[in-house]
Amino acid sequence: MSNIIKLLPDSVANQIAAGEVIQRPASAVKELLENAVDAGASSVELVVKDAGKTLIQVIDDGCGMSAFDARMSFERHATSKISKAEDLFSIKTMGFRGEALASIAAIAQVEMKTRLHDEELGTCLKIEGSKLVREEPCQCKPGTNIMVKNLFFNVPARRNFLKSNNVEIRHIIEEFTRVALANPDISFTMLHNGKPVFNLQKSSFKARIVNIFGKTYDKKLLPVEQKTELITVSGFIGKPEFSKKTRGEQYFFVNGRFIKHAYLHHAVENAFAELLPADTYPSYFLKIEIDPADIDINIHPTKTEVNFKDGRYVYAVVQSAVKQSIGKHSLTPTLDFDVDPAIDELFQSVPGKEVKQPEIKTNPDYNPFKNTSSHGPEKHTRGDGGDWQKLYENQENREMPAVIPSDEEKMSFAEQNKFFQVHNKYIVTNVRSGLMVIDQKKAHERILFEKFLNELKNKKPVSQQQLFPVTLQFSPSDAEILRSLKDELTALGFTFEKMGNNGFVFQGLPDNVSASEVEGLLETIVENHKKEASNLGINKNIILARSLASRLSVKYGKKLSPEEMEGLFNGLFACEMPETALDGSKTLTILKISDIEELLK
Ligand code: ADP
Ligand code: MG
What we know:
binds magnesium ion, five-stranded mixed beta sheet, elongated, eight-stranded mixed beta sheet
């Protein structure tokens, strides 16, 4: 038997490697743009024709190459960026494998003009299917101008495999976008078939996002900034209310490199989770700076994946950074519960008026504008109070807090009466900037949600033992779900045992759940679990807390006592995200004095 193993010629080896690195025009675009970035360019132009199938050209004003380097750059494993194995742990450039140009040259007709800044002449190279066909000195601008023509001209199978121009150009735009987002301090332009697609000047990161995705993003973005000893997370997230129905703008950059990272994606989705309306996705543009020694980018040939040494740590920082950003946004800066002195006048006391409490909802003698307050008339500036008074008194069912505390009484008494209910749906109260209107159901849901979430975390349930344990039967699959949630349900205060095949007997219930509610509640839990469990970003606890909160919250139409309103109010503002309802909408709004004045014009 003769020997049959032989080394492949370089051209074949390069073609095989090319299959890995260059899958479509967009991959070549990515490599060429990254080379321009690595070359320290301050301006990069991308020109494509026929979605890159006939031409991809990248012109940069970076460092350029000597004649020798220009030739070398097309050799496999030829790179200026690393020279020894240890360098792999301190990579600061986009490329480092030295494969891209060799791969591209194996499957296309490449023409490159390149010139070092301090040289008079540049070098022009032509390579087709890995074969050097021309090399000569030439006149050209400093930097590098590379043209890749007829991609896959010698690999018909690949060429035929390409999708329509529409699809291919979308991939190119995506790659362009990633590189442009990662490098806002470089100007980028893109032309397709002679028409400008992007013209991006150097700018801030935010301006770069806005310039790529459109002006409306200016108002949609929330800044994210978190620094720890080991990493910095910065950038922007889309406000929850602008979340999208399609998985859209989700960008992580690690040390300037776009990456996909399912685990970190979950960190962001988790931070958002309860704020996002169903079936929508958050937008984010997050940059993570980390010591290159703490990551491994060498695990994927196209390098969109990164391994973190301590993934859990990065996860926690990213999640907390996003949560903080949302939290800050949720608390409107105008929120202030100190009553403004000017508004205070509306609630000045009428001396000698006996105040009954808490039954009195209206006080027919209340005149908010009459100058009889103990503070003296000089405080009142509205002269025509008389007409106002009439108007006010003629109203039968006025919904103003009409119990008027004296100064001494104000503290204790007004405190309890500063809320009133509108249509058994909204709670209204005075704040510095105007009237705060709280949606009672959404507010209560938020309170309960955070309470249950905390219980799930802390595992210190408040459970009420039932005099008559509740026995319930379930379908086999539902029973299975309940079994799988046993730990969580226990943390919430459910104590239960298996009974028969698919039944359970509940001896203890959370302290605010009655025996009659338990069946409906568990059905909701199971339903929501089925619906959302497929959504990996939302964890069990959130599903559970949300199910319980929506089920147990006070409904519209329920009349609330002043104590209940106050309880809701205080509970809401003890929450981490008081202003955001579970469906992503708002729990409250403030009707500003200026808005009211506007309405009255
Ligand atoms: P890598 O980027 O992984 O090093 P490439 O095949 O993309 O490998 O490039 C090989 C080498 O060619 C680079 O290391 C760099 O020195 C040089 N090079 C490529 N493109 C440019 C460019 N636009 N400007 C300057 N040098 C370049
Ligand atoms: Mg490269």
